[in-house]
Amino acid sequence: MTTDIPTVAPPHTLAGRIGKIAFLVVAALMVVAVAAAFFVVWTIQRSFPQTAGELQVDGLQAQVTVQRDALGVPTITADSSHDLFYAQGFVHAQDRFFEMDFRRHVTSGRVAEMFGESQVGTDMFLRTLGWRDIAEHEVEALDETSLSYYQAYADGVNAYLAEHDGAEVSLEYAVLGIQNPDYEIEPWEPADSVAWLKAMAWDLRTNVEDETERAMLVAETGDEAAPDDSLALLEKLYPAYPFDENPVIVPQISTVPTDDEGTDAAPASFTGDEAGESQNAVTTIEWGEADNVIEAAGMLLGDVGEGIGSNSWVVSGALTESGMPLLANDPHLGAALPSVWYQVQLRCSTVSEECPFDVGGFSFSGMPGVVIGHNDQIAWGFTNLTTDVVDLYIEKVDGDAYWRDGALVPLDVREETVKVAGGDDVDLTIRSTVHGPIVSGLTPDFTAVADGEVWADGTALSQGETDAAGALSGEHAVSLRWTALEPGTTAQALFAMNTAQDFEGFRHAASLFDVPAQNLIYADVEGNIGYQAPGRLPIRGAGDGWLPQPGWDSAYDWTGYIPFEELPVAYNPTSGYIVTANNAIVTDDYEHFLSRDWDYGYRAARIAHLIERRAAAAPLTAQDMRDIQNDNEMWIGKKLATVMGEVEVDGAGPQEAVALLRTWDAQNNADSAAAAFANVLWSNLVQNLFANREQPLPYGSQGRLFTVVDALLDDPADPMWTNEKIDVTGMEEMLALSAEQAYDELVSLQGNVTARWNWGSLHAITLRSDTLGSSGIAPIEALFNRGPYPVGGGASVVNATGWQIGESYATTTVPSMRMVIDLSDFDASSWNHLTGASGHAFHPHYTDQTENWSRGFQTPWAFTSDAVDEATVDTLVLNPEG
Fold this sequence. Notes:
Low-confidence stretches: 1-11, 259-306, 461-467
Number of helices: 25
Shape: globular
Helix content: 25-40%
Strand order of the largest sheet: 1-30-2-3-6-7-8-9-16-17-21
Radius of gyration: 30 Å
Number of strands: 30
């Protein structure tokens, strides 16, 4: 008999089965992960543009060649203007369409259609300003040729969109589709391009924040019985431009010599006497010389780095090694990813009257043409004019009417609808007066100005009391008068500048640049240099726009605009150079009021000093221009270093930190420990003087604070040095406390070894996408944002990498691009900008210029055909379809 004994599987067999299962699970997960990775990579790369080979494109008249260099910068060559701008639109769409699409939603007040309810407030404000409506009026007024350029550009954009949709256009659309699956890309229109000029004008609107800030300050600190006290405080916090220390752009308005044919005849070597004898001047207004900038040469000089500004200068061949002009420019704008700029070159295969373009430089994606750069004859640069072109008016509104000169006048009222992705539509009523749209009720600041009821003479009244114009019924509101809210001609100006051949053509183009108003500098291959202030600049009535104006009194209205022929101009000045850095354009002797809110001129004086010092040692080179652009000297830092030598601080650590300043060269270099301490000391001092008080005071731009604090440091008895809230009496106690706080702050940020402190990482820039990179969802932000990158420079230095006191030391505003143009050899020029040619995340050209930008390096700028051919790494040929 046999007994069957049950068998049990050996342990290793069970383990084997478990291992096999685990292996299969891991293998399956790996397959899923690999598939997901391939899907992500495919999703990312499917929008990368084709940059080599050939494409058939519907709408072209003839073959177009697009050559790209190692940075992806395109040179577009076409037989006709139509094909040239058509191809520019196509190429812009290839590299930057999501940026273009987002911008047009901003300018038309339709951001909520992309990103939902959170953007309704933004749309309501932008709809109230009406940028898109104005752009459409400007398109209607375009001359036939300019309109054809915009239409060709739009056709090129739409040709690209016809073959690409959704994630094929950009990764952002794949992510946007998760939140907003119904979103559809619309065709591009000429008004989409023109409207972007309004957004740039808003970025460069200058002093409306200061005007608002001042009105709120008077409302908070003023006493109706003693308004002079509030006005005196304003004068202290917003001092006049230091004409005795820092330069003006045009100390003497030039005559512009012309020959019998009307072309510019003055050589670059003209002296003052020779220029004075010139006949047939375009402009004959003469002004006395301002104090020479050399008087400020011993100062350490800078600017409002955290604000929106720019540097530009041009030097004549009399000061250069080549004997020909050099022109430098670096506009300061908010940091953006991708950069606001797009490098491009536009070349007609045969330059002719029909196709007159041979130009290279920096463009805006979404717009045809080149904004800043050079053609084969002239070069030009921009900085913000800083003139006051925006005024706030306090209106007295009663129902659907408002008061004007003792009578009620009907408000202009229109209704609009804000569409909201994933939500209900929002109805919007827009009310306007003769001055412009009513903006109170849309933003907290403008609403506070209306509630404060402060106007031109500093008067503050309560609701229901008697106004200056008599007993007026109703409530106060704030309207906005702004030059950009009227149709203008800037949309034509770019083409005129791109094709200008001499100073006369340059000035004609400048006359069309009405909004935004910019300082324009000039150089040409004949050796001439020049400057022109363009723009639609208001002539005011009773007020000067420093505080809000009473809207019920027409005496405060604008009465017109300064004629172009009376705007400041300079041509081949005897100094041999022209510097513009948002400083005062002219002295107060100029017959028209321009502004009381200039940048305070430290940056301009520093640049002028460096030009003069270097030119005295040796003829200037393009490398000298690049070195000046990267100058990090901090004027207030040296001033603080001097006064801190006499201040006693408690503790070995703070004493060691203060000692760093004794040997500091005042350069905010990225690797400098002293620069880190100086900037943190400055931040704490400013906050202790202005913010940490029982009645906080605005501190705003650091350029203005240089002047304010400098005056305080020269007056230890000033009552501002006493602050009961922080238990400080006198200047020495304030400086000592600020230094001790700065030491503690830096220890918490970078440790207690002072030698290891550095400004670069404290001041680093993180590049953030304006849209999905600011979503608040970390994995999505990681797809689009890059950095941080350590940088030098700072607020109120020539290398203007700005930061916000009281918020962070991180860089927020930047020299958005840098260029140096050599008129002796255009191929010896150089350029760089913040990010790269591509707007596609993970593309090789997404941020491939950032490292060089952060270090202040510029790359060679090939312009001539031979140089472009040598630099070309990819060539795309666009052929007419069929």
